[in-house]
Amino acid sequence: AQPTPAEAATGIPAGVFCAQDYEALAAKALAGATMAYIAGGAGRDQTLDANRAAFGQWSIWPRLLRDVGAGHTRLSLGGPALAHPLLLAPVAFQTLVHPRGEIETARAAHATETCMLASTLSSFRLEDIASAGGPTRWFQLYFQPSRDATLALVRRAEAAGYGALVVTLDAPIQPASLRALRAGFRMPADCVPANLAGLPAAPATAEPGDSRIFQGMMRTAPGWDDFDWLRAQTRLPVWVKGVMHPDDAAQFVQRGAAGLVVSNHGGRSLDGAPASLRALPAVRARVGKGTPVLFDGGIRCGEDVFKAMALGADAVLIGRLQVYALAVAGALGVAHMLKLLREELEACMALAGCATLADIGPDCLLPKPANA
Ligand code: FNR
């Protein structure tokens, strides 16, 4: 499609009518192997597919004549107020899809009042991402093989003004994606984690006869004591990303987590794990209203955001849509994608009779009968 004059003037790519349209454009813009790496899940994509399918099991119940004239999407997750509940999920190595990677994403987050979660494995240093972006940013932390190295990252995030740490615990090892392997994907040599320059790499080799997994890759994986240690090192709120089981959720809350992210890493960790949307109600039920719960996995439109909020999320993280928009149009693409997604959510709220996020609850949904 030719861009309209308005699109040509703004630089918005032609053919984008909804946030998900960036996916098809990214598939054209990126090399096939790169697209396979981003779009794919771990193993056979069972959990990846389940994440999407779970949204299809719910309908949204329209309501009539409700006054939403004072409607808004504001919320607070413990820190400064947020304008809307769409946060940018941590995504590693963004120079894979755009030469200025996370710098562009940070600019988009600023322009759209979005909280960005910068990955430990970013292509740019967390300090550079902070200076490129707005005031609302969190740092996604991966435990490093030594506590000294982990603490160095924490101190840098504090100094750079990150408002929270989000420690991702669901991927101490990441099984390969068969889709990416079969497409011949290799991480380019210049895609390196800028934050970890100079830090020692994990000593992952096992002795002969040992398991490559248990005694190898998992040797430096964190445990509960590391979580307690981390909490004691910082005054920043510590969130946990990757929570799927209500018993884990309860443990983290008891040990002082500021909030939880129900997530299965976008289907990129345990292949065979349930859809994150299925895990969400049980986690919410266990931790009650007092603990903020975020959600990610499979969100592609505003109606998906609404369903996640109805099933217990306070806000959501956007993963792949962010990467696709970045690949197609840099900061402008990410900002445009977020604007479209936010408008889809607002339209959905209005037609479901919800003036505020607090009005979105389980009674806004109807389960779909099988085959309906
Ligand atoms: C991720 N994700 C991720 N999570 C994390 O905690 N740290 C990271 O560095 C990364 N890196 C990363 C790279 C790529 C290419 C993808 C697709 C995902 C997981 C991410 O934060 C989020 O949980 C999922 O992407 C959410 O699912 P959707 O929105 O992609 O379906």
UniProtKB/TrEMBL annotation:
InterPro entries: Aldolase_TIM, Alpha-hydoxy_acid_DH_FMN, FMN-dep_DH, FMN_HAD. It holds the Pfam family FMN_dh. Keywords: Flavoprotein, FMN, Oxidoreductase. It is an enzyme of class 1 (oxidoreductase). Residues 11-370 form the FMN hydroxy acid dehydrogenase domain. Its EC number is 1.-.-.-. The keyword Oxidoreductase applies. Belongs to the FMN-dependent alpha-hydroxy acid dehydrogenase family. This is Alpha-hydroxy acid oxidase. It comes from Variovorax dokdonensis.
